[in-house]
Amino acid sequence: MSSVTADHIPPSVGHDDHAHDHVPTGWRRWVFATNHKDIGTMYLIFSFCMLLEGGTLALLLRTELFEPGIQFFQPELFNQFTTMHGLIMIFGAIMPAFVGFANWMIPLQIGASDMAFARMNNFSFWLLPVGAILLTASFFVPGGANASGWTMYAPLSLQMGPGMDFAIFAVHILGASSIMGAINIIVTILNMRAPGMTLMKMPMFCWSWLVTAYLLLAVMPVLAAAVTMLLTDRHFGTHFFNAAGGGDPVLYQHVFWFFGHPEVYIMILPAFGIVSQIIPTFARKRLFGYASMVYAICAIAILSFLVWAHHMFTTGMPVTAQLFFMYGTMLISIPTGVKVFNWTATMWRGSMTFETPMLWAIGFIFVFTIGGFTGLVLAIAPIDIQAQDTYYVVAHFHYVLVAGSLFALFGAAYYWLPKWCGHMYDEKLGKLHFWSSMISFNVAFFPMHFLGLAGMPRRYADYAAQFTTFHQVATIGAFWFGLSQLIFIYVVVKAVRSTGPTVAASPWESAEGLEWTVPSPAPHHTFVTPPQYEG
Amino acid sequence: MTPEQRRRNRRTGWLLALFAVAILVWTFVRANLYGVVD
């Protein structure tokens, strides 16, 4: 535990202006919230609710897949579940969760009093429940929800019922929220850093979010345009993607994946930032190769714009194009490898302890790297043509998005929870949550590699009997993983409702950064007068 | 936040919003080279 307490905070750093200490109460505090901490909390609660909804859909899928044949859900409904699981997890759970952390932590880390556009921040958040309601309500319209997969490929998406329009409108709304959030984050970071905090002195979480926000700004309009074209093809007589009218369905895939691949990095770069914060704290060493970490993030972001067609090798393309996208994709492993090397080098000869956030961070490195390697395998065009749309791909992206993004999110929640609520979480239960999730995740998803290599296609409600055993293991693992998350709810509720003494400003011995200079729990208003950052 | 900082934030924000709108328009224009409008 740290010896730093609220009493020892230099007034220029942990300044809390009591003249501004008014805290709104009741429902108005949340509906009209402009405080970055309140909005961050709402983002996090919302994203966790969506995680539970998306997770429930995943468990319904796994229930159907426990045995071959159709047991519970007809294939049409099964496909609605797969589609909505993907959309809800990506746009409802993972992305808003990272924005929640950005809202809470970026102003605290750069010494700003709030986000640059506090009212727009409120609007960005309140668009989310609208989008979520549209997505969920689409199950109840004639024909049911969108069942074309989260990618919404034409021409299938042109033939769907009104559920597809709900999904298009939801994507518009969630996209608008993301663009506003991105603008807010960029302006906050560029214009509102504390005096003395140059860009190259900024915490890695802020750097990762600055680059992510630029990615969002560049690709969300592309998705908005793609789904708008779907909408006009469906209802207003255009034929962008309709071959019968002279359009090109493959064009949709190009436009979609020009958004879709950077989107993958939108969901993983903030996770890199989080891990880069946690590991130095519990290794009690400075982050190894800070500058190279920054350049690696920028390199990954730039390369992410150049590799979109590796998702489309089976659509048919010239060998030159295949080679370009194949080698381009492989290039991404270099800056990613730099990051993994630097995290490992940070731990090397460090005085390491293994509190819950550190367990999640190290777990992230192990399992994310497995996902990275299978990504390299899939980058090889001849192999991808074999593995396209099989469970190998499902295993790959769940290793990246669950074991990558979600594990980092859990690590961050445990790391910053004492700062948010002022109470330490239950360490034993935190560790139980980690180990239970880590083991069950691998039980659920590792067999999917074998299923994919054996030829099991994704998005199928039924399968040949030869796949039964691996599917049953995966289903058991999935339920175990889902139930493990109940531990997290209990741990968080217990810490938040605790009436015991509050922790010190910095509950972690070696944590660095401005966020650890304000008292725990962080007061409603912080850094009303910008602190002088000495770095 | 000082009025000057507020102005600076607003200027940067509008610039970024313009960038997003430009990309949206560009995507439609590019796709229209392929798409057929009745």
Tell me about this structure:
The complex is a heterodimer of chains A (535) and B (38). With 535 residues, chain A is mostly helical. Chain A has helices at 26-31, 36-64, 75-110, 118-137, 156-159, 162-191, 204-235, 249-266, 269-283, 290-304, 319-331, 333-347, 356-379, 381-387, 391-421, 427-453, 468-497. Chain A is 66% helix and 0% strand. Chain B is mainly α and 38 residues long. The termini of chain B are far apart.
Q: Would you kindly provide a brief summary of this structure?
A:
The complex is a heterodimer of chains A (535) and B (38). Chain A is mostly helical and 535 residues long.
Mean of all residue-level pLDDT scores of chain A: 94
Q: Largest contact between protein chains?
A: A-B, 34 and 22 residues
Structural class of chain A: mainly alpha
* Sequence stretches where pLDDT stays below 50 over 5 or more residues of chain A: 1-19
How is the secondary structure organized here?
The complex is a heterodimer of chains A (535) and B (38).
Chain A: H1 26-31, H2 36-64, H3 75-110, H4 118-137, H5 156-159, H6 162-191, H7 204-235, H8 249-266, H9 269-283, H10 290-304, H11 319-331, H12 333-347, H13 356-379, H14 381-387, H15 391-421, H16 427-453, H17 468-497
Chain B: H1 3-32
